Queue: 2 jobs
Job 1
Amino acid sequence: EGNSLNKDDSSLETIVRKFQDTVSLGKKHKFWETQPVGQFKDVGDTSLPEGPIEPPTPLSEVKQEPYNLPSQYEWTTCDMDSEETCNEVYNLLKNNYVEDDENMFRFNYSKEFLRWALRPPGFYRSWHIGVRAKTSKKLVAFITGVPARIRVRDEVVKMAEINFLCVHKKLRTKRLAPVMIKEVTRRVHLENIWQAAYTAGVVLPTPITTCQYWHRSLNPKKLIDVGFSRLGARMTMNRTIKLYKLPDSPATPGFRKMELCDVPAVTRLLRNYLSQFVVAPDFDESDVEHWLLPTEDVVDSYLVESPETHEITDFCSFYTLPSSILGNQNYSSLKAAYSYYNVSTKTPLLQLMNDTLIVAKQKNFDVFNALDVMHNESVLKELKFGPGDGQLHYYLYNYRTQSALKPSELGLVLL
Ligand code: MYA
């Protein structure tokens, strides 16, 4: 997740953002300078080897007690099976999580989504970390990890995927975030895991790649009404609606929803496809069942089953992440689909993605978002996606890559 509620690009915003990123490269990072991550001063130094920055320490040397919080606060482990705790997490994020630069939209992850994102195969409850105010017991901050095997070139590395770092708006800039990051790091270390992957909208030392969000209007009138997009030059509302119109149903013969019995075939297809990227998850069947089997209003997956051979040749998926619309009279929620993993072997990617847009439209999404990762870039323009103002930076913790990757060399999508 990052700071990337992807409104339309505008040149001034882009210039300001690039300027801010440049400033950030020269900025001091009092916390991040102490961490085993690629440092800005080392950018371009090809003498540094690829791989772990520090070796693992013996487990007996991992700090056994939690880090100290300011005295008014206490640690809590959030049990996402508990309806009550899940509600508290949901509300903290709903009111305090990622907004766009102009504070018009804020991510609104659903409870079902949070449960899905936080309980993959082999998850650790101890990695779902909250901070409460001691007297009121109110949940005021959150950070999570989930285990994943991520391949970097030829090495499959056990990692934590870190997400949902959130500090209540009233407690910002008090250096709570570094304590939370250190505490999740400690709990990951206790499981003998020494690397992590994460994304953010902010520039930190040092991205392995920087991706751009693109968005495809499905409901252009609403998007314009809420300020997500603007009417193009020399365009009327009617011409805009016509421009983004899609057929009523997918075109590819054999295009259907993924089912449980497809897990082995989808796993084979996906593993083979992802093997071409420099950084990608190493999914087994249980991962595919968890991450890709359709779950209503959370994740949708479709595939192409050849009508002749019944072979599964192509796959596409997206997840559901609405945003709250802040301060609009007429609308309170933007329904957004985010492109997840797509594999094309027989059906051209352009046609596969167009069919995906069609089903997203049928399901009443307002917008379909995609990053320029994997082969996405090659079809975005033709499918009438426009570049967003959000950048998403990808990071690895305690793992150095020789040089930055191109977005197209990245085969990893985090939530
Ligand atoms: S990305 C989503 C992040 N969440 C939001 O943007 C929600 C809205 N914002 C907030 O809730 C707060 O502003 C947050 C910062 C909590 C983000 N990732 O406490 P502070 C550094 C990493 O005074 P606050 C996601 O969830 C900042 O550079 N570091 O600041 C992935 C500064 O350090 P330095 C960040 O604004 C998270 C320090 O924090 C981020 O009150 C991956 C300031 O702390 C950020 N997004 O709180 C986490 N934003 O001085 C890393 C700011 O050095 C995981 N900072 O510049 C690392 C791997 C750990 C596991 C390792 C296992 C081996």
Job 2
Amino acid sequence: MVHTPVIKLNSGHNMPLVGFGLWKVDNAICADTIYNAIKAGYRLFDGACDYGNERECGEGVARAIKEGIVKREDLFITSKLWQTFHEEHRIEPIVRRQLADWQIDYFDLFLVHFPVALEYVDPEVRYPPGWFYDGVGEVRWSKATNQETWHGMEALVRKGLARSIGISNFQSQTIYDLLKYATIRPAVLQIELHPYMQQSGIVRLAKAEGIAVTAYSSFGPSSFIELGLEVAKNMKSLLQHDLIAEIAKKHGKTTAQVLLRWATQREIAVIPKTSRQAIMTQNLECVNFDLDEDDMRRIASLNQNIKFNSPVNYFNNDRLL
Ligand code: NAD
């Protein structure tokens, strides 16, 4: 089995450097996928209320634990707070529901999914609630501030419902602001990060502040082409990019492994997903080689500051949902 290195978080807990993402994992195959990923050696799973599959994730995890493949404490389970639950008094009840879906009693890491608060939608009305108040296209903002939300997140640690807490899709100014009032600092910042969106400034900020970084959508446009996002369709695939292919050939690796190693070599965690067993192993094995300085310099030249996963894309015609 592949040995996955870990990052020591500022909370004192260890987080695996390579994990498994759960966005767009179909409900019908989700329990089997997570069960197979555990068998392949994955220990970190990156879920969210918004992915709409936490109950199935819980079934897969429960099966693996019941069969003695892993213990709960071997796993690192991440989930996220959806925007409609940003008011402080909404946080604990929804986290308890999410934990019940996962059939666990604490999250290893719980993230604020986006620093954007939306009006509450009762889970009895629609769950997961998504971006739109009416489920179709109406955006309704909530007045909850990031400070209020973070206060509620800190309570999760104090109550033992989350071991570490963190943020996702925050930008520099929002992070500096949060650090002024945080009594528990964010352990992890999860952001879109790939050669077309290298985010070097915010990565430096996070490292300087002792916040670990997790990259999502490591293959760039691929994830968003699947969703029909125009800006992604117009970009050259990174998985088939000539430069990445040349570097992959030099090291006897796949382009996907090069894209993942480009992050993990700098202690940036990655969370790719696939339902294919051979690809699961291939992605997990991305830590078994090193890119050289020249490779890193050439990949750096691909930066275009193009962010695919932006609320602006959700609220305009180029919608993802
Ligand atoms: P991904 O990395 O899972 O992959 C995109 C596409 O690449 C998928 O079609 C996948 O099947 C394919 N793929 C995977 N491995 C491959 C390989 N070795 N070779 C060729 N193709 C391969 O992209 P993603 O879902 O955008 O991001 C990964 C995870 O990050 C998500 O599952 C989710 O957990 C997290 N995420 C978080 C946010 C956030 O707002 N915090 C946003 C997006 C994604």
